[in-house]
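If you are new to this repository, start here. Below is one unmodified record pulled from the training split, so you can see the exact layout before writing a loader.
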Amino acid sequence: MNILKQSLVILAGIVLAACKPEIVSPMDEGVHADTSFDVAIEFTGTAFVTSDLGPEDLLIELNSVDVTSSFVVNKEGATASAYELADYIFPGKNILKVTGYRDTDQIEFYYDTEGPEIHILDTDHLSHTVTGYVFDRGGVESLMLDGVSVDLDENNAFTASFYDEAFHTFEAEDSFGHTSSSQYARCDQEFAGISARLNQGGFDFLVNVLETELNGSDLSPIVAGMDPVRLLNTLGLFDMSIKFNSVSFSNVDVDLNVLDNERIDTDIQVANTVLGFTLSGRIGFFIPYNSSGTIRFSQLASGTDLLMDIRDSDLDLSLSNTTINHSFPVIDFANTSGLLNILDALTSAIVGALAPMFERLFIDVLEEIIVPVMSDFIKDIPITLDVTAPQSGETVSVRALPTFLDSADRGVSVDLSTHIWAPVPSEDVPGAIGSLFEAGETPSLGAQTPAGEDFHFGASVSANVVNQALLAAFEAGMNSVEMTRELNRNATPAGIAVYRAPEDEIDELDEIRVRLEPASAPFVKFMPATGVAGKLGWYDVYLAFDLYKPEWDEFRTVFGVTFNLAVPFDINSTEDGFLSIGVEQAPEIYVSEVDESGIIRLMPGFINSTIDYFMPWIMPEVAKSLKVVPLPRIYNHTLYMRDFWVAGTNSLSLAGDLIPVSVTASASVPATTVQEVSKRSVDVAISTYDDTGEMVEGVVSVANGEVTIDVDGLNPNSDLGNLEYRYRVDGGSWSIWKQRDTIRIRRLLAGDHEVEICSRTPLLKREVSCPVVNFTTTVN
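And here is the target side for that same chain:
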C-alpha cells in the first residue's frame, strides 16, 4: 500500500513537472494599436490534471500588477480581454508575466498610441542638410520636414535639405495612422520661458534690512550735498542762511505692501529725528555771525510709492507721491549771543524753511538708501552668466532678461526672455538642428501653490528653456562621460565579476574603461506624476566598453552599443540658483544596435549586464552636467523649495521660502542617524558552459549585491519642516537633495563600498560631519 502511495505521489510530481504556462497572445514583441485583442495563456501538459481550476500557484502580472482575478481560468488556460486590462496597459512597452505549476513565462508587447519618433544624428548648418532616421514599432509610412516630403530608405533613414529658419518641424505617420509632430528651435532663439514671482512674504524680508540701514547708516554724504537756504533778510540789518550738516534716525519702523500697477507702498515711522545745522550771516551791515544747533522731531511719518519698471532689459525702481508728516520741531541753538532780539523771528524763519528742505532731504535719503537696498534685493532676477565645468572647462552661456513686469494679489511677477547657448561648441559632437520645442506660454504664478499654500518666491520654467540648456551642454561637450577606476575604483575586472562568466576573456590584470558618447542632446518632458517632475529622454546614446591588456599596451574597444533611454527625474533648486535634475531610478533602455569587435570572447548577456551595472553610476555624472538651467534669484537669499507642479502645457513651477544667507550661516547644524543597513544577496544570471561543452544558463551569487539604508536625523528646525538628505556612493556625484527615509542601492560591482549621507535643514544648514556606511560586495 505504501509503495502504491509513493508511486502515485511520484506520478503526480511527474505530471505536474510536465505542466507549464505559455503565453500565446499577445505575441512576444508584438505591436497593437488598440485594446481589441485577447490575452491568452495556455497550460500545456495538463492531460492528466484532474482539476478544472488551473494551477494553485497561478499568478498573472501585467507591468508588475497582479491581474489574475481579471482572467477566466480553467484546466486548459486563462483568458482575458485587453479592454478589461486597459487600466494596466501603458503606451509603449508592457511586460506580461505568468507563473504556474512552478514555472514562468514572460513576454513583452507594445501598445502603439503615438506617432513615430524622429532621431537626428547630425546636422550641417553650412550645407543645410540633416541626417537621421524615423522609428516606430508599427512601421513608418511617411515623413515631412517643414511641409516638404522626405524620402526614407529601407531602414527609415533620411538625409534632407532645409532652409535656414528659426524653427523646423518634422511630421511623421506610422502604419496605424498615428501621427507625430516634432518641432526644433534653432540654437540662437530666445524664449519667454521663465516667469518669477516674489510674493508679499518675500518682501517682508526687506523690512529688517531697511530698518537696520536707516537706523545705522552714515547720512552725512547726503546732507553735505545740500545748498544753504536763506532764512531772512530784514532791511539789511540781519541776513542769515541755514545749512544742514547732519541727520540721524532712531527707532525706525518700515512697512512694505505690494500694490497693483507695479507699485510698492512704503511707509516709514521714525520716533526720533535729529537734524544738525549751522547758521551764518551778518548782524547789521558789517558784523559776521556763525552759530549751530539742532532740530528735533519726536515723530516723523513718510509715505512713498516705489514704482517698478523695466528699462534696458533690467529692473528699475523710482519714487513717486512722497509725503512727509512730522511733529512740531524743537529747535536748540548752541550760541544765541547777539541774537536775543531776533530769536523769535529766526525760529519762525527756520520753521518756514524747514518743510521743503526736510522733504528734499528725506527724498534724498530714500533714493540713497531705500532704492539701492530694494534694487540689490531684486538685482539677481535678471541673469547673465557663464557656467563652466570645473574640471574639463566646457562653458555654457546664460542670459535671462526681464521683458514684462506686473504686480497683483500682493505679489510681483517678472517674465524673462531666455537664451542659453554654447559659445564654443565642441568639434567632437554631432551637429544638432535645434532644441526640442513645444509652443505654449509659460504661466505666471499666483499668490499660492495649487495646494493652497503661501510661498515667498517661485518660478515657472518652460521645458523649452530646459531643452535649450540641455542642447547647449551637449554642444559644449559636457554630456560625454568616461568611467575608469579613477572615477569608480570598482570599475575593474574584479568589480565586474558580479556578472562576468568564467569564459569571458577578461583577466584580473586588465583595465576597463566605459565611455558614453551621445549622438544627440537629452530632452525633458514634464508630466504630472506623483513624486517625479517628468521623464528625461535620450536618443542614440553610444556606450563603448574598452579593454586594456598588458600585451596590447593600449585600450581597444571590445564592443559598442547604441541605445535610447527614458528615466523619471526629480527636481530641486541648488543653493547657487540653478534647477537641479536628479536621476535615481533605473532607466528604461532600448538597445538599437550592437557592434562587437570580436577581439575577445564574451558570453551572451555580458553586454546587457554592462549597461545594467554601469548606467546607474554614469547617470548621476550626466545629471551633474545638466546643472545649466538658471533660476531667478534674490540677492543674499536662497530658495528652499517646498513644492513643485506641472503648470500649463509644458512648464514646471516650483515655489518655496526665501532663506537669508545670514540665517543659514548662524543656524544650528543637523545630524544624520543611520537607523538600519539591510544587505541582500542577489543571483545574477549568466551564460556559461557545462562539462560537456553545452551552453547553459548559470548564476553568479553576489553577497551584498543590494543595500538598503534607513535614515533619520536630528533636526534643530523641525517646526519649519523635515530634513532633506543627499548621498553619494564611492565618492561619485551627489544625488539630489530631497526628503527621504530610505536609500536603495542596486547593481553594485564587487569590492569595497562607502555611502556618504548628508542632511540639511529647512534653513539650508548642511551637516558638517556626514556619516559613512561601509560594506563589501563579494562574489560567492
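Two things worth knowing about this chain: The chain is about 15% helix and 50% strand. Helices lie at 2-18, 200-216, 220-224, 343-378, 463-476, 606-625, 661-666.
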